[in-house]
């Protein structure tokens, strides 16, 4: 395994730190805090920002003051880096490790290899860089198709979306008591007037209706059809080659995947990014599949597994259960969360122009993903420093807000999956949206979500609890 490229990730400890400080905050808030610091200090490496954040006991304010002070005296934190840290273009492959030739000389099918592939190829604190489709399929919940569109079609779509990106906006998200803007811009595209009406007056996002919904261009619509075909093929391959007994996952839809919304992001320059998150399940349902097309500048897509808490961490969780928001957790419990977040390291998937990444059904519940800020990028001949990303999504009719529960605030509840707590891991729940919305306190609404095998909601036998499990138990979604 030495031949694959790995890079040390944040040093979560330093000689000055006490044991309780050796790791950082809870998974969600660490990423949010890092996102803020990155937007304030874009030339500083993410790893260093994390170190500083940890040394400031997780206080963004203290870290920010310290960094501002440092900036005036040009410390190592603020020196411009000349070394090209970006490893884009360096080819590494795990294929020689994961593909074995059988005694009769034939290649073993990928499912046999996947069964043998233990333990996970990443290590705590390290990043494994993957480039080849075989490695990505075997080691992550994703598949990649390079050179997806004919060159002229990819370039034409990129040009069209660069023009569209004039209308993109940053969205707000909540960081404790502050409202923070996304470190990239975006807009949502739909094809029909009815879908436009639904997106702007029925589906909610963060407690409000979306305002930046636009009419899909003919090119976006035609590419959507091509994405649909390939994603459905890849879903079937994944089921056949990777999933246990060649069967779809429980709650994964057995219907054809039919995208009806395209979220388009623009990352203008190397520091624009999106922090670690899972995509919101509310309208996509459990085990959704998402098709993600990259255009323009190549960037790194990082994924990491969500690690369940160990049994000996239960007492700490009991303390957390009394709190109502992640921000009220103790530093020690925050540290434990960060240590778990990094327990299995990260995998970096390199996304060149015109590559289609399929996030398969196990992705959102079991993994988190991000676009990390880059130290260096190679400008693209058409887009310069910009990267455009389109995620094609399938909003399911059965999860239209006319059917889903409302919380005590009178708003549509959001669907979340318990990702960390051993006893409830993998269970779904409807919760008040407001714990995750800018400036909102929220109510304690909580209801277990029940689904049939196809992931369509079952509404009988509602069980409503008065006290919500702490939001701390669930990872941030977007
Ligand atoms: O830009 C990308 O490749 C990922 C975007 C993403 O994760 C999202 O929009 O939810
Ligand atoms: Fe996402």
From TrEMBL:
Keywords assigned: Metal-binding, Zinc, Zinc-finger
Residue ranges, compositional bias (Polar residues): 15-27
Organism superkingdom: Eukaryota
Segments forming domain Fe2OG dioxygenase: 258-396
Domain CUE positions: 29-72
Region annotated Disordered, chain positions: 1-29, 310-339
Biased composition (Low complexity): 324-333
PANTHER family: ALPHA-KETOGLUTARATE-DEPENDENT DIOXYGENASE ALKB HOMOLOG 3 (PTHR31212)
Protein name: Fe2OG dioxygenase domain-containing protein
Source species of the chain: Penicillium antarcticum
